[in-house]
């Protein structure tokens, strides 16, 4: 048995190095594989953002007419809807739908109440009447966050204009 101790220690050290080398990559793979979800802001972020999302290691903050992406090592990107008329600003009707079944508890200090407040996750967040007869639906598509504009009778897609601000902002044809 004493002759086998160096072999067991060698095996243990090798296994420990292997796990330390693989674990960070496995964690990143898990994050990348996670689908985005939406949650109400109960104090886990600045009160200016009523809804939040996370896409891998990117925090997504959602306001009434804007969405902001905050990255760990790059400036934020903000997509803001440009309102055609002042009357469009009145509606602030949001709907969370398609519960994922996930619930989180945030234990942020000094707000200890977040430890007791369940925060359910949803697969879709819809802003009703972003423009007259146009809804803005945010949802997951695989590992990506996407949005749709839902045009109801009487809606005009030409009313939907937005501006993109921030470094590295780009708009793909899709």
Tell me what you see in this structure.
17% of the residues lie in helices and 44% in strands. It has a six-stranded antiparallel β-sheet with strand order 1-2-3-4-5-10, with no helix packed on it. The chain has a four-stranded antiparallel β-sheet with strand order 6-7-8-9, with no helix packed on it. The protein is globular. The N terminus is likely disordered.
Shape: globular
Q: Helix segment count?
A: 1
Q: Mean pLDDT score, rounded?
A: 74
- Sheet with most strands: strand arrangement: 1-2-3-4-5-10
The radius of gyration is 22 Å
Strand content: 35-45%
Q: The biggest beta sheet, please? A: 6 strands, antiparallel
Helical content stands at: 10-25%
Q: Assembly type of the shown chains?
A: single chain
């Amino acid at each position: 048995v004493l002759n086998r101790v160096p072999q067991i220690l060698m095996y243990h050290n090798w296994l420990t190095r292997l796990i330390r080398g693989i674990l960070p990559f496995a964690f990143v793979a898990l994050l990348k594989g996670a689908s985005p979800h939406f949650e109400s802001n109960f104090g886990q972020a600045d009160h200016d953002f009523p809804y939040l999302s996370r896409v891998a290691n990117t925090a997504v903050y959602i306001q009434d007419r804007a969405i902001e992406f905050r990255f760990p090592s790059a400036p934020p990107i903000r997509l803001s809807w440009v309102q055609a008329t002042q009357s469009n600003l009145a509606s602030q009707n949001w709907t969370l739908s398609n519960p994922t079944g996930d619930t989180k508890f945030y234990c942020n200090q000094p707000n200890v109440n977040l430890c007791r407040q369940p925060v359910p996750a949803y697969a879709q967040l819809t802003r009703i009447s972003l423009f007259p007869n146009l809804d803005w639906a945010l949802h997951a598509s695989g590992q990506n966050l996407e949005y749709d504009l839902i045009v109801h009778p009487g809606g005009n897609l030409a009313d939907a204009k937005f501006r993109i601000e921030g470094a590295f902002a780009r708009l793909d044809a899709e």
